């Protein structure tokens, strides 16, 4: 999500800065330089959509994909992102003779073990340089500091260092810089050092992104010398500091993203009142405390993420007065009380995660106008299931909500919804499985551990258009039979445990491509023949506490977890058990099998 947002910010700026390019007839010398440049590059032509189309017999290089020119035919821009370039960039004198070049984009290439060429300073007219995920490595050359016309600089995502000389030397002459992206660049500076280096050199800076740069805190008030700063992204750094009040003094602040930064202490409530603030991300700062204030009536807030912090208290009624809100993530906090019913009026809300809190009452009545893709207000107070064993296949542990009443039928009319997780609350009533017909985009459905009854009568796959989903969890939902899922093609997880299902496990279940299957705690008596368990995608099968008879069934050799305990199996332990070389958990207890163990188990 962060990468996408960064690219979105850059793209908007690119449109503004470079929308005035016009294309004249390409000059002969420019064509020659481009052809020489191409011929010296190493790239995979089968994955190239631009370079592979450059043809020296073409009369106008300004019409080549990825090339833009001015009216006189000078090359102004090269957009060679995602062109499968893997080498040859080190000694490209032809590139550095494109003296009119204002924009160079080499993002998303594979230049591993290659340093950024020092000769890049010869492109003195560069205003835009994007090396995002181009995979350059080594020390960032200080020759970049000679590109004094730069307005946008993105060096993110490689294996780069900025040390001795460091950040202060790099940005010292870049007074025109408006956007700086240094994500994953190793900088290793204290708060006073990197704050001072930026504030003394970049008076026009609007976007600062230094995610995972090994910088530390505290944040220095000298940053206020950057009056135009609107986007601050410092995620995944060990800032180990309190959030300073002065951040609320940035009058143009639209984004503050400081997730997983080891922030602590009370969060300044006045930051919520900044009228321009659109995105606030405090995720993962588990020692950060605070409460949600009453929000201003004309707040611009679009995304609010406080998950895994120590925020407490009630959701203010004014949260329903955030007309622009698209994402609200409060999972694993200490919120309590009712969810304001007026939240159903937030028609722009697409992602809601209120899990692992202590909310009470009912779900707001959401309108069909909501274009939701994710609703998660689930918990995990139900019985321990094998899905909770380790981190390998388990979803986040979500508990402590106490929502009750019936699930509003309006939820099943949110046609854009892809994730609906309402498990382990106290919802009641009967839901016919046909209700999911109104959710054609559904990918994850979890209604487990409530007081619900799921009716699957008449769910024949030939007449019932069940959406193609990846995860279906209907644990403890009073199921009497298997829902007809034989037309599913992308399902990975199926959990129908703790129900009243009897009879046979249908043979089509083994052809779904599942990785995780839990049918434990039912009244199943057998596996329908023939069944094919040859797939290597399987990781977990849990059939314990049923009435399955006969010999131990053949299972996939790729299993990590297998439980067939408390059934009516007979005979001896089969030799194929020795082929389960990935197994971490194996339970065959409480059956009528003999006690002789195959030597391989020892």
From TrEMBL:
Keywords per UniProt: Leucine-rich repeat, Repeat, Signal
Kinase found in the keyword field: no
Cell division as UniProt keyword: no
Every Leucine-rich repeat-containing N-terminal plant-type domain range: 28-70
GO terms for biological process, alphabetical: defense response to fungus
Highest rank taxon of the organism: Eukaryota
Signal peptide coordinates: 1-24
Pfam families, A to Z: LRR_1, LRR_8, LRRNT_2
InterPro entries attached to this UniProt entry: DNA_repair-toleration (IPR053211), Leu-rich_rpt (IPR001611), LRR_dom_sf (IPR032675), LRR_N_plant-typ (IPR013210)
PANTHER family: DNA DAMAGE-REPAIR/TOLERATION PROTEIN DRT100 (PTHR48060), INACTIVE LRR RECEPTOR-LIKE SERINE_THREONINE-PROTEIN KINASE BIR2 (PTHR48060:SF22)
Protein's name according to its UniProt entry: Leucine-rich repeat-containing N-terminal plant-type domain-containing protein
